[in-house]
Description:
By secondary structure, the protein is of the alpha/beta class. The chain has 3 domains: 16-87 and 137-214, P-loop containing nucleotide triphosphate hydrolases (Rossmann fold, 3-Layer(aba) Sandwich); 89-133, no CATH class; 219-308. The protein is built from 14 helices and 9 strands. It has a 5-stranded parallel beta sheet, sandwiched between helices. It has a two-stranded antiparallel ribbon with strand order 3-4. Strands 6-7 form a two-stranded antiparallel ribbon. A hairpin with a 3-residue loop joins strand 6 and strand 7 (181-184). The longest helix has 17 residues, at 235-251. It is elongated, with a radius of gyration of 25 Å. It starts with 15 loop residues before the first helix and ends with a helix.
Amino acid sequence: MEPQSTRVPVGDPDSADDVAARLRATGYLCDDALATVTFLALRMQRPLLLEGEPGTGKTALAEAIAETLGLPLVRLQCYEGIDATQALYDWDFPRQILHLRALEAAGASGLAGADDGPNTVAEAEKSLYDERFLLARPVLAALQQSPAVLLVDEVDRADDEFEAFLLEVLSTYQVSIPELGTVRASVPPVVVLTSNRTRELHDALKRRCLYHWIEHPGLEREVEIVRSRAPEVSEALGRQVVTLVQQLRDAGDLQKPPGVAETLDWARALQHLGTTELDLATAAATLGALVKYREDAERVRQSLERMLT
């Protein structure tokens, strides 16, 4: 669970252009379509489902939204086998045991069979499920902290049952804890779900959300992103790097085409080596910042000379 932010919310944007300007101020550059769907998700209080290839800026958008709205970001990283417990809450068992031992040591548990034993035992059991022993997981934390931004990252890695759970929570923005009652968000959190589309999500979840497919940026936008996020990299080197990355994506023969994050990593790596102009030897030596599969690295090395000339 992310720590609660001390920042003061700065108010909702009043147009798609306002969204784009605010995101740009954080270093996140988006096109008109993405700015529009983000504005509508905020205005309509609907979850925003972002799909696209890894590295296209889905997670970064949620982070930028939280920053520009001055809200805490609570992130739920999905994985195979995740269930409602990992998303909602758990009880701090070690602290409960210590609490119970403290009651026994103080003679307050009534376990010796005194007349008031049953009532005292019931009170002791009830005290074990006090809010101080509750471990809030991301979904519950977002409802408690709201207004907040809840990022449900890589929801496609979870299973159908978890999707159904999310759908229920996103429909009511409340959860029931049997020992404590219902926790309801005073203000619905801003919810961003991301998917790399390793599997199709169910229509019921998609209908609850506004949807946008994020493409890799075009040449000029990616150059602008590099200039914004890595200003220490010269404009000439940044353009060389982006041009080559764009060619690699367009070739379509890599297992994992580099995303914007890899473009930034490669540009920064080259800058740290004092590179002012991309050459064959330096490009080949730094491919570990750009591609992460051996087969992809071999393909790129075989194409570098042609691409650089």
